[in-house]
Specification:
CATH superfamily: P-loop containing nucleotide triphosphate hydrolases
Structural class: alpha/beta
Distance between the termini: 32 Å
Helix content: 40-55%
CATH topology: Rossmann fold
Mean pLDDT: 86
Oligomer: single chain
Strand content: 5-15%
Length: about 210
C-alpha cells in the first residue's frame, strides 16, 4: 500500500526545506510531489489578486496537483509520497467560502482529506515576527497575510485525524529537526517499521511538543 503525507502551513514555514532534507536523509523510501503553485507560476501562469483570476488559478492548481500526485504514485509505487501542499490548501487561497471551492472542483473537504494518510503542519515564521523572504521567488504575501493564511490553513487541515503541528521556533534548526523527526516517525509508522531513536519524539495532535 502506498501512503501520502502532506507537508503544509503558512508561507515561510520551512516545509519545502524539510521535504528536501528528508528525501536526502532516507532516499528511496519517499518521493517528493513538488508544490504545484510554484511550478505553474514560475512557468508563466499569471499570478493576480483579482478574484476571478484567483478562482481560475486555484482550479488549475487543484487539477495539476491531483495529476502530479497520480504520476508520482504510478512512477514510484513502493514509495511514500511527500506532498508539498495538498488539494485542501486551495480552499484557503480561494476568494470565497471553502464550500464554494470544493463545489467548483467537484469534490468536498471530506473527500480531499481522505486522499492523505497524514498531515504535518509547519507554522509560518511570520508568527514569530521573522521575515518570510526566502528561496521561493513567486511568494508575494506580506507578514500579516502569511499569519492569516497560516491560521486558516491550520483550522481546515487540523480536521484530519492524523494531524501533527510543527510550531514556530526561533531556532530554524530546532524546528526543522523536530519536523524531520515527526516525518520519520510517521513514515515508519505507516510502513510498519521501527523508527530511529531520534524519530521517537512525542507529538500531540494539533499541539506542541511536550
Amino acid at each position: 500500500m502506498q501512503y501520502r503525507i502532506v507537508l503544509t502551513g503558512g508561507p515561510g514555514g520551512g516545509k519545502t526545506t524539510a521535504a528536501d532534507l528528508f528525501r536526502r536523509e532516507i532516499g528511496d523510501r519517499v518521493v517528493i510531489v513538488p508544490e504545484t503553485a510554484t511550478i505553474l507560476f514560475q512557468g508563466g501562469f499569471p499570478r493576480s489578486k483579482d478574484p476571478k483570476a484567483l478562482k481560475y488559478a486555484q482550479t488549475a492548481i487543484y487539477q495539476v496537483q491531483r495529476r502530479l500526485e497520480d504520476v508520482q504514485a504510478a512512477l514510484f509505487p513502493g514509495r511514500t509520497l511527500l506532498c508539498d501542499r495538498g488539494t485542501v490548501d486551495g480552499a484557503v487561497y480561494w476568494p470565497g467560502p471553502p464550500q464554494e471551492y470544493f463545489r467548483s472542483v467537484g469534490s468536498s473537504l471530506e473527500t480531499e482529506l481522505a486522499r492523505y494518510d497524514a498531515v504535518i503542519f509547519f507554522e509560518t515564521a511570520a508568527l514569530g515576527g521573522v521575515s518570510i523572504e526566502g528561496g521561493n521567488p513567486v511568494r508575494n504575501e506580506t507578514m500579516d497575510e502569511a499569519v492569516d493564511l497560516d491560521t486558516r490553513l491550520r483550522a481546515i487541515w487540523s480536521k484530519h485525524p492524523r494531524f501533527i503541528l510543527v510550531p514556530h521556533n526561533p531556532s530554524f534548526f530546532k524546528k526543522i529537526s523536530f519536523g524531520l523527526a515527526a516525518l520519520e516517525g510517521l513514515v515508519a509508522q505507516l510502513n510498519g517499521s521501527k523508527p530511529t531513536k531520534a524519530a521517537r519524539t512525542p507529538v500531540r495532535r494539533g499541539g506542541r511538543k511536550p
